[in-house]
Amino acid sequence: LAGTVPEEPRCTVERADASLTYSLFLQRFAFSRPVILGGVTDNSAFRALCTREKLLAAFGPFPVRLSTANTYSYRKVDVPFQEYVEHLLKPQDPARLGSDTLYFFGDNNFTEWGPLFQHYVPPPFRIPGTSPAYSFGIAGSGSGVPFHWHGPGFSEVIFGRKRWFLYPPDQTPHFHPNETTLAWLQHTYPTLPPAQRPLECTLRPGEVLYFPDRWWHATLNLDTSVFISTFLG
Fold first, then answer.
1. What is the CATH number of the domain that holds 167?
2. Percent of the chain with pLDDT over 70
3. Residue 8 belongs to a domain
4. 80 partner at 20 to 30 Å CA-CA among 1, 16, 90, 195?
5. Measured distance CA(182)–CA(189) in Å, rounded
6. What are φ and ψ of residue 187, in 5° steps?
7. Sign of the C-alpha dihedral computed for residues 45, 114, 71 and 195 taken in this order
8. Which of 78, 83, 80, 72 lies closest to 107 in space, CA to CA?
């Protein structure tokens, strides 16, 4: 299928489990490097509400705002959620530009989606002086967002698998802002010397990635995926 990519078994992002304390999180990761957290929350109840059938029953007729899957996400398109799921949620075409690829992530109407988010258990850690905001998304295999940066945050996979690529703020990756992550992986990634490769890992359901402020990151959904981020602004 167009957009289907094999999983890379190598993971170069550090992992931590539920034994990680808040003080150690602040000391070792919050301001310096990403980490994958396992077993820090239980979102089985939230996951049960995020099946295709449950989401269509709850939100089918409501409009959702889609963004183009390029670095600057200039274009926004509003469509009924049911239309997105039934007609636009498909594997990424490797030849399609990011500006022509529509992606459901981030622009959630909290009046409509708020009751669902009340069931989500966020990661237990915070950055002092910030407040959390949720961003919920669903996307097809091979889709993703190319390299960009913003403030710190967490991202959890609810269904599917999601591959992440990360660079520190002082190491700008080589990419074209209108090229999809899939095209970058196929054309640019193989040419990178080992010292220029990003930190990377594939997240599975229940795993949470933390990324610090201003870290470059790109994502690639290996399956049709449901995911939610907690941005710390």
1. 2.60.120.650
2. 98
3. no
4. 1
5. 10
6. -105, -40
7. negative
8. 78
Place of tokens 């075409």: 93
How many structural domains compose the chain?
1
Of 216, 210, 179, 213, the C-alpha closest to 197 is: 216
Q: pLDDT (tens digit, 9 = 90+) per residue, 184-220?
A: 999 999 999 999 999 999 999 999 999 999 999 999 9
Q: What is the mean pLDDT of residues 36-49?
A: 97
Length of the chain measured in residues: 233
Pairing of strands 208-211, 153-159: antiparallel
Mind listing the pLDDT tens digit for each residue in 56-86? Answer: 999 999 999 999 999 987 799 999 999 999 9
Is the pLDDT confidence value at 4 over 70? no
Answer whether 0.85 is exceeded by the pTM.
Answer: yes
Alpha helix segments (H runs only) across the chain: 22-25, 44-48, 52-59, 81-83, 110-117, 181-187
Percent of the chain topping pLDDT 90: 90
Place of tokens 């909290």: 110
Per the structure, the complete domain to which residue 107 belongs is given by: 15-232
CA distance to 2, 52, 79, 88, per residue, from 84 (Å):
18, 12, 7, 5
